[in-house]
Write a structure and sequence with these properties.
With 1865 residues, the chain is an alpha+beta fold. The longest helix has 31 residues, at 843-873.
Length: 1865
């Protein structure tokens, strides 16, 4: 029972004491005048009566009513119901506003106001002052208060004949029950009647309609935000113009928080004078009148809810964590169903008749029911995480937050984490954790209804039904008797406030009121107290917890199989089967990523401890510790799944004996984990153990129990600690005092003993084994942070005394140890303080503990010293030996191997993955840094994989990104520093440094790598430093070789050709590069320069005329030698002549205008221009183009005679462009005009240079993109399942040209109806960027036409490539591998889209050229996309470029000579570092690869050739792809040096030279399916769907690293068969080929490579020198052609079987393509054989393959008098070898070669020196099968040569031949 009202107060307006303009409230009267003992009078009540301040009003306002809430110091809420009305102000009150300050001050000093003198003028008109009636109560009955105060006001206003004192006395003495659902009728003695209903349960809040109103005002999302903000302790401020609304909103928000109680500042109506409260640092819920909105603007961390505007403003710096999904969305949808039931029916075709919405009161309860369900879902199973620490005398309960979050699967959830850490939840635990108490609706819901809630989740109607049921209960709680709520209370009449009141509110008689109160009090004391017995019960725990959202644990879903593996491994360890255990260990370590496997491990180990198997040998100990470490490394500091808790007893149980009396326990090896230094972990563990012991304390069976009751005892054992506590609480009052005392002591001693136990445990895990590592360890685990933290952890005031106790008593001498010990002691003391204070341990016990802790720590340190000493004597675990990588000749190690682990990246092949195969990664080994590569070599850490060497490497120059990472080492699971290196050759090295590699070594590695990647100068790159002795990074010393002098010469040539005539002429013979045919051989003295043949003989030959000066001729001859000119010669493009004697017959000429690189530095020295254009005009034309790259011809179609031109883009504005022009003075306006005029003239000259034969046909080429037309001169790609008629859509060409389709052409290419088409088409199409072509005027005669296209920029290529890299080589393993992920990221990269655009534009250009129109490609600066398009067009149009020689020529001409910026795009030097790598050339190779896939029979080179170039154009191994233009190459002396004669063997500097050498030995670059059709124009499909991802991006072989450095990947060839020792049949050797490890094409070569290999092997066995593969192949093909003819059928019947599609008429075979087609014994020594390229003067558009590959005929071929094979004994200690010998009578020599077709002589015996030829004897190592008489010796003056012929006859013949030769001499 409680008083309805505690105080009645009358407050009126009074002047402000400090004299400010406003007034203030004054309490006129209060009843009772004495404070109640149990409830003192609240201070400051007058502020809350007028929250906006006490002010006078010019008119009478109607009375107002609101309820303010005050909170006292004990957190009790007092409800102040305020009814305010206005009365005419007395003169004193009015004067307040007008009086001056001085008078006010006097008044204040004299003590109180006095009547003013009449001299002060009164205000015009009457003013009204407020007066407030206030009821103060601890009960929240707002309606009753409103009625009661209204009654008092009515009596006063209406002048009723009722005593106000009586009414107030009755009000103050009215006693009503608090709860229980009773009904009470009261009357205040004025003929009134009110019915008060008390709620059924006082724990449930009363909300009336406040929640529904809140949702109406703010909406669902806003209320949910406020709800989350209040729960996560943010500041919430409500604004409204209505005080009652503010009160309701605050009450509604509090009602939503149930069952949590809001425990921070709660002020629904804040007075204006107290607005500074809003700046408080603590959370609050406050309401403020909207008039003060401006004052709330600068609050930065307050969430403002405007009730009138319906908005919620969250400041930027505040983050409100949302509810965890799926609860957020579920709650949202249920709320919308409750608030807007029509929503579900809104879309129905036949909506049901509208149902009446719930009343506001009912809707209010439904909304609350939704939140009640939400809390039941959030807190489901919370009782299973309560720890009963004490039961008597008071329950002490702790909540295991980490376990709760872990089991709910919400560890990462920000919202729940904050809620559980909040004050409201702490209150919830202490209030609701008690196991024996009254229960309410929430307890029932969370225990019994959760399963129903889960089942209903997907059934909205069932959810709604449940919500309505709960709402009924809530409604019933508030209105237990809904029918009887009959009030009868008088109200004032209408507008009574406007009537002039007869008098002010009277002063009441205090005595009378007091007398009534006293009477009632006396009566109450006499009555017996009405005690309502509370129904206390055991609170139900409900079902155990489940995760809110069943997250699939992905990779680590613990199948029974995995748990079985864990169990087996442990049993092997304990049974001593170490080899078996070792095999299973990697699988176990992988399985331990999953929670269930970790639990399983703990359980299994626990079983072995119970079986007394805790003492282990060294190996067992090592295994157990590794598994424990693996378990613990994934535990967070909170240990939410209890893994660390389960392992804690085990780490102190397992041990090994180091020596007699010294035992090492497992804890000394598992200390590195963050969980051990987390106080929260230790507290949770401690409370858990205490609970277990206290439960055991009460479950101990009584000693005198008879055996029959044992069954009951076992049933008791199943009860939880909460059940036991509940039972004990129920029995407590019935126990005797002594018994109670005994139980309290038992509990305390239990807690105390556990505290000692934990002090020991903590010292075990916190003191490091080696105290020298202490500092590092402490930094890692963060004990130091706890040191510096505030004293918040210590809840006892003993902290001060504690510090003294342990410092004085422990007496540590050793400073180092003292530091560690001190830290640990302080940590343990903090812990002990906290848990003991919370568990109610007496202070004496606590002091005792503090004294013990230092001793425990010191004892433990002494034990550890012995353990550490002994453990260092153990043999260290042997780390694997470092494997040294194979290096290239000239490659040097910069940093020797750093021990690292290579970790798996996102490509799953290496780690086993879904493709199967072994887990090669992680691998343990070392990383080496050489001048050329970064190399990892090592072995897999998984012992099951076996002794496989893993190699991953890439060229230093290919490094694109390097970032530091922090990773766990696969073996010890410790966090280590790592490095992730990504290369543009699609390798990724993700490494973790071993602990023995210091951070300084790792840093040194990074610095050296950076230095090698970005040398300051191009001379610092590997291609230049190769073989030189200087250190990398330093520019090389000027060597005395011919390079520098050549460089000087060229530079002089460029600068001033005229001044150096004499010197150049002198040096002409010396430096004249040899002609292409005879490269590599010294030129015969009398040989004439090949290009100086006179022009009459062959007009198309390049002819420097006699009129050139000698110096110019020198330059010419060098320039003519370049690739471009050989190609121009082949194409019959132009003559080289001086301007005087220009041959008019040729439309184009070769102009030497740029030979000094003066017009354009990035162009070659010789250019093809129209015959009619003068050289001096070219200078002016060049100014119109970017980088001065004016249009020049680069190819001419042999059939249609159309030409392909290339240039840079046009300058967008004429004049501006001129200022940008390079190498030219800034010209004036007139010059600008002349330049653009020259440009037009130049284009006109190009057009007129073209043959006009095709113009009459009038065929519109641009609309001719249908395959029917294409059929006449070309073919489309043979892509499988291509359902389209053409690769490009029919209208692409016309769309590109920016005009409509003009109708399909006829199939045979005949002209269409002239009505459809323009009479003639343009002779020249200019393809340019849309933006640039604006400045070009269209040609009035329509001879040329502009085709604006949109191309991607270079930076887009760069971005796209980065994304492609990440897609093909992801950095980290994907959690759930899904093929769609790769495809999605590939699509995001847009790489294939760019390839598509390039092919599309190229096919368009091919079409135009093929139909007789010329094309000028004029895009960007003319060196990126232009080069790509122009090269592709030539490749598609001209079969020559699809041969090995032609492709080389194409690259040399278009990419190298025309100045693609390889160094800039490849970021080769420090200067290019910022621009980064841009793979323009790689993109071109990818396009070629796409064409190659579609036309496999049209290319002489294999796909491996493209990959080879793709790899080496970035590797910087060769000089070919360095520098940005020919000009730069001349400056460095590179351009002609490779053409100079070389005597000494030298490493290949040119990639082409390397390819040539390699091609002689192995067919790896050759495509066996090469069977071209003559004059074939290719038109590939270019749609993205037809493009394939190049396997260059995705393949890798970990056995040998990238296969493009041929010397490194070729191990010794394995013999395919092995002879048995007993001479039996050979056994075949099977070999396992692993994906991603072995090179499949090498393990299983294609048929032809296999046969060639077999031939070679057989030849070697027969003792014959093996033939070149190419000769064999050509012979076979020739034979096959003949056989095909004799058969009369097209089907060959010999070696090759045709299996090609029917529309291919050429021979060919589909074979597996592989980078390493054959394993011929290869040693790339630097042979000096001549190049295999054929003469540049031949004009055939395409040669037969035999010519391309045929070796040169040796010059001595006619001088071979006699030849054959002889075995020759080598020099001293050398074996016998078969050689091919040639007896040359002319030169009087006996020469020998490696084999018959070899062109290079290996040695010469001069017959002049021969003294005698005599029969010989076999020596050691001679061929066994040969007759002794076949041996003969040749004795010379220097030495004796031993020979052996194949038989006696041939030996005799040789002897005869040599002697006849000697006799001839």
């Amino acid at each position: 029972m409680a008083r309805l009202a505690d105080y009645f107060v009358l407050v009126a307006f009074g002047p402000h004491p400090r004299g400010s303009g406003e007034g203030q409230g004054q309490i006129l009267q209060r009843f009772p005048e004495k404070d109640w003992e149990d409830n003192p009078f609240p201070q400051g009540i007058e502020l809350f009566c007028q929250p906006s301040g006490w002010q006078l009003c010019p008119e009478r306002n109607p009375p107002t009513f609101f309820v303010a809430v005050l909170t006292d110091i004990n957190s009790e809420r007092h409800y102040c119901a305020c009814l305010t009305f206005w009365e005419p102000a007395e003169p004193t009150q009015e004067g307040v506003c007008t009086e001056n300050a001085a008078v006010r001050e006097d008044e204040a000093e004299e003590g109180g106001p006095r009547r003013l003198s009449p001299a002060v003028p009164g205000p015009p008109g009457q003013l009204f002052a407020p007066k407030t009636l206030v009821l103060v109560s601890r009960l929240d009955h707002a309606e009753v208060f409103r009625n009661s105060l209204g009654l008092i006001y009515t009596i006063h206003v209406e002048g009723l004949n009722v005593s106000l004192e009586n009414v107030i006395g009755n009000l103050l003495t009215c006693i009503i029950p608090l709860a229980g659902g009773s009904q009470r009728t009261i009357s205040l003695g004025a003929g009134d009647r009110q019915v008060i209903q008390t709620p059924l349960a006082d724990s449930l809040p009363i909300s009336r309609c406040s929640v529904a109103l809140l949702f109406r005002q703010l909406g669902i999302t806003n209320v949910l935000s406020l709800f989350c903000a209040a729960l996560t302790e943010h500041k919430v401020l409500f604004l409204s113009r209505s005080y009652q609304r503010l009160s309701d909103a605050c009450r509604g928000l509090l009602a939503l928080l149930f069952p949590l109680r809001y425990s921070f500042t709660y002020v629904p109506i804040l007075p204006a004078q107290l607005l500074e409260v809003l700046s408080t640092p603590t959370p609050f819920i406050i309401g403020v009148h909207a008039a003060f909105q401006a004052e709330t603007q600068e609050l930065l961390d307050v969430i403002v809810a405007d009730l009138d505007g319906g908005t919620v403003t969250v400041p930027e710096c505040v983050h409100i964590p949302p509810l965890p999904e799926p609860l957020q969305s579920q709650t949202h949808s249920v709320l919308s169903m409750v608030l807007d039931p029509e929503l579900e029916l809104a879309d129905l075709a036949f909506p049901p008749p509208t149902t009446s919405a719930s009343s506001l009161k009912m809707q209010d309860k439904e909304l609350r029911a939704v939140f009640l369900r939400l809390f039941a879902q959030l807190l489901q199973g919370y009782r299973w995480c309560l720890h009963m620490v004490r039961i008597h005398p008071e329950p002490v309960i702790r909540f295991h937050k980490a376990a709760f979050l872990g089991q709910r699967g919400l560890v990462e959830d920000d919202f729940l984490m904050k809620v559980l850490e909040g004050m409201a939840f702490a209150g919830f635990v202490s209030e609701r954790g008690v196991p024996y108490r009254p229960t309410d609706l929430f307890d029932e819901l969370v225990a019994h209804e959760v399963t129903r809630i889960r089942a209903d989740e997907n059934h909205p109607q069932r959810v709604l039904r449940h919500v309505k049921e709960l709402a009924e209960q809530l409604y019933k709680n508030e209105n237990p008797y809904p029918a009887v709520a009959m009030h009868k209370v008088q109200r004032p009449g209408e507008a009574s406030h406007l009537r002039r009141a007869p008098r002010p509110f009277p002063r009441l008689d205090e005595g009378m009121v007091q007398w009534i109160v006293d009477q009632a009090t006396a009566k109450m004391q006499g009555a017996p107290p009405a005690v309502k017995a509370e129904r206390r019960t055991t609170v139900p725990s409900g079902p155990p917890m489940t995760a809110i959202l069943e997250r699939s644990s992905g990779l680590h879903g613990n199948s029974a199989r995995r748990l079985e593996v864990v169990r087996n491994c442990i049993s092997y360890v304990f049974e001593g089967k170490m080899l078996e255990a070792k095999k299973l260990l990697p699988a176990v370590l992988r399985a331990l990523k999953g929670r269930a496997a970790r639990r399983c491990l703990a359980q299994e180990l626990h079983l072995h401890v119970q079986q007394n198997r805790a003492v282990l040998d060294h190996q067992q100990f090592d295994f157990v510790v590794r598994m424990m470490n693996c378990c613990l490394q994934d535990c967070t500091s909170l240990d939410e799944h209890g893994i660390a808790a389960a392992l804690l007893p085990l780490v102190t149980a397992f041990c090994r004996k180091l020596s007699s009396g010294v035992t090492q326990f497992a804890y000394s090896c598992v200390q590195e984990h963050v969980v051990w230094s987390t106080p929260q972990f230790w507290e949770a563990m401690f409370y858990g153990d205490v609970q277990t012991h206290i439960r055991a304390l009460y479950l101990e069976p009584a000693e005198d129990q008879d055996p029959s009751q044992v069954g009951e005892a076992s049933a008791l054992d199943e009860r939880s600690a909460l059940d036991v506590a509940s039972e004990q609480q129920r029995l407590w009052p019935m126990l005797s005092r002594e018994k109670q005392q005994e139980l309290v002591q038992k509990e305390e001693s239990t807690v105390f003993s556990q505290a000692i136990h934990y002090a020991n445990r903590m010292s075990y895990l916190l003191l490091p084994l080696d105290s020298s590592k202490s500092r590092l360890l402490r930094e890692r685990v963060g004990l130091g942070d706890l040191e510096s933290a505030s004293n918040s952890l210590v809840t006892s005031s003993m902290a001060g005394s504690v510090a003294e106790s342990y410092d004085t008593e422990s007496g540590f001498e050793d400073a180092e140890t003292c530091d560690v010990a001190g830290t640990v002691v302080r940590f343990i003391n903090r812990f002990v303080d906290k848990v003991c204070t919370e568990s109610g341990v007496t202070s004496d016990h606590l002091k005792g503990l503090h004294v013990m802790v230092p001793d425990i720590v010191q004892m433990h340190i002494e034990t550890l010293e012995a353990v550490q000493r002994e453990s260092t004597r153990l043999r260290p675990i042997q780390k694997p030996k470092l494997l040294r990588p194979r290096l290239l000749p000239g490659e040097e190690c910069v940093l020797d191997g750093l021990r690292v682990y290579l970790l798996p990246d996102g490509r799953e092949e290496g780690s086993g993955g879904s493709g199967g195969g072994p887990a090669l990664l992680p691998a343990e080994g070392a990383v080496f840094l050489t001048t050329y590569r970064v190399i990892f070599t090592g072995m897999p850490t998984d012992p099951l994989v076996g002794e496989q060497v893993v190699i991953r490497s890439f060229p230093v120059a290919a490094l694109t990104k390097e970032k530091r990472i922090s990773v766990q080492t696969p073996v010890d699971q410790f966090l280590q520093d790592g490095l992730q290196l990504r290369s543009c050759t699609f390798q990724l090295l993700k490494m973790a440094f071993d602990e023995e590699v210091g951070s300084d070594n790792a840093e040194l590695f990074r610095k050296q790598l950076h230095k090698l990647r970005y040398p300051p100068d191009i001379r610092g790159t590997f291609a230049f430093t190769l073989g030189s002795s200087h250190t990398p990074g330093r520019p090389p010393r000027a060597s005395k070789e011919k390079g520098p002098s050549l460089r000087t010469l060229s530079r002089n040539l460029v600068k001033n050709a005229k001044k150096t005539i004499g010197r150049q002429y002198v040096t002409r013979k010396k430096y004249n590069p040899p002609s292409w045919e005879h490269r590599g051989q010294p030129p015969p003295e009398d040989q004439e320069d090949e290009i100086s043949v006179s022009e009459e003989l062959e007009p198309s030959t390049l002819t420097p005329s006699s009129a050139l000066k000698p110096s110019d001729r020198m330059t010419m001859s060098s320039l003519v030698e370049r690739a471009c000119c050989r190609d121009y010669q082949r194409l019959g493009l132009g003559t080289l002549s001086s301007s005087l004697s220009r041959a008019k017959s040729e439309p184009f000429r070769i102009s030497p205008v740029n030979r000094m690189y003066a017009i354009c530095r990035s162009y070659p020295g010789l250019l093809i221009v129209p015959q009619s254009v003068q050289d001096n005009a070219l200078q002016r034309v060049s100014r119109c183009y970017r980088q001065n790259r004016f249009p020049v011809v680069c190819w001419r179609s042999g059939r249609s005679k159309a030409v392909l031109l290339r240039s840079g883009g046009l300058h967008s504005k004429g004049v501006v462009g001129l200022f940008k022009a390079q190498n030219t003075p800034s010209p004036g306006q007139s010059q600008a005009d002349s330049s653009s005029l020259e440009q037009e003239k130049y284009l006109q000259a190009v057009v007129s240079s073209m043959p006009r034969y095709a113009d009459t046909s009038g065929r519109n080429t641009l609309s001719g993109f249908s395959s029917a037309h294409m059929g006449s001169h070309g073919k489309w790609g043979s892509v499988r399942a291509s359902g389209r008629s053409g690769g490009l859509g029919g209208d692409v060409g016309s769309r590109l040209a920016g005009r409509d389709m003009l109708g399909p052409p006829q199939a045979n290419g005949a002209p269409l109806d002239p009505g459809f088409l323009r009479p003639q088409r343009a002779a020249l199409y200019i393809i340019g960027d849309k933006a640039q072509l604006k400045g070009v005027r269209p040609d009035p005669l329509q001879q040329w036409e502009l085709v604006p296209i949109e191309v991607f920029e270079v930076r887009q290529v760069k971005t796209s490539f980065k994304k492609l890299l990440k897609a093909c080589v992801p950095g980290s393993p994907i959690i759930e591998p899904d093929p769609a992920t790769f495809l999605r990221s590939l699509e995001d990269s847009e790489w294939l889209t760019q390839i598509h655009k390039l092919l599309q534009v190229s096919v368009l250009v091919v079409e135009l050229l093929d139909s007789g129109s010329s094309v000028l490609v004029s895009l960007e600066d003319g060196w990126d996309i232009t080069t790509q398009v122009v090269s592709l067009v030539q490749l598609l149009s001209d079969p020559f470029y699809r041969t090995l020689e032609g492709f080389r020529l194409l690259v040399e001409k278009e990419w190298l000579s025309f100045g693609h910026r390889f160094s800039h795009r490849g970021a080769h030097t420090l200067a290019g570092q910022s621009s980064g790598f841009t793979p323009v050339f790689l993109q071109f190779l990818d396009c070629v690869h796409q064409v190659h896939l579609q036309f496999p029979m049209e290319f002489e080179f294999s796909p491996f050739y493209l990959k080879f170039l793709g790899y080496h154009h970035v590797s910087r191994r060769f000089r070919t792809f360095l520098l940005d233009s020919d000009y730069e190459r001349i400056e460095l002396g590179l351009l002609y040096e490779e053409k100079g004669e070389r005597r000494a063997p030298q490493a290949c500097r040119s990639v082409w030279e390397y390819v040539d050498r390699l091609s002689k030995r192995t067919p790896v670059f050759y495509n066996y399916m090469y069977a071209p059709e003559d004059s074939e124009v290719l038109r590939p499909y270019s749609n993205v769907s037809n493009l394939k991802v190049w396997d260059f991006y995705t393949q890798e072989t970990l056995a040998e690293g990238p296969p493009y450095d041929w010397e490194l990947t070729q191990g010794p060839p394995e013999p395919p068969e092995e002879e048995r020792h007993d001479g039996g049949a050979p056994q075949s050797r099977r070999r396992v080929v692993w994906p991603c490890y072995d090179s499949r094409p090498r393990a299983q070569p294609d048929a032809i490579s296999r046969l060639l290999e077999e031939l070679q092997r057989l030849e070697t066995e027969l003792g014959r020198p093996p033939e070149r593969w190419k000769d064999t192949w050509d012979r076979v093909k020739a034979a096959q052609r003949l056989e095909g003819r004799t058969d009369g059928r097209g089907t060959p019947s010999s070696l090759l079987v045709s299996s090609v599609p029917h529309h291919r008429r050429s021979l060919g075979v589909y074979l597996q393509e592989g980078p390493v087609g054959s394993t011929l014994s290869l040693s790339l020594d630097s042979d000096q054989s001549s190049s295999s390229t054929a003469s540049g003067s031949r004009q055939a558009a395409r040669r037969s393959t035999s010519t391309l590959y045929s070796q040169f005929q040796t010059a001595e071929s006619e001088n071979r008098s006699y030849e054959g094979t002889l075995y020759k004994k080598g020099a001293f200690m050398k074996p016998w070898k078969a050689r091919w010998f040639v007896l040359d009578k002319t030169k009087h020599q006996l020469r020998y070669y490696d084999h018959r077709v070899d062109t290079e002589c290996k040695g010469v015996i001069d017959l002049a020196e021969v003294e005698a030829v005599a029969p010989g004897t076999p020596t050691m190592g001679a061929p066994k099968t040969v007759d002794e008489k076949a041996f003969f010796d040749v004795k010379t003056t220097r030495r004796v040569y031993n020979f052996c012929a194949q038989d006696v006859a041939s030996a005799q013949q040789w002897v005869d031949q040599i002697q006849s030769c000697l006799s001839d001499a």
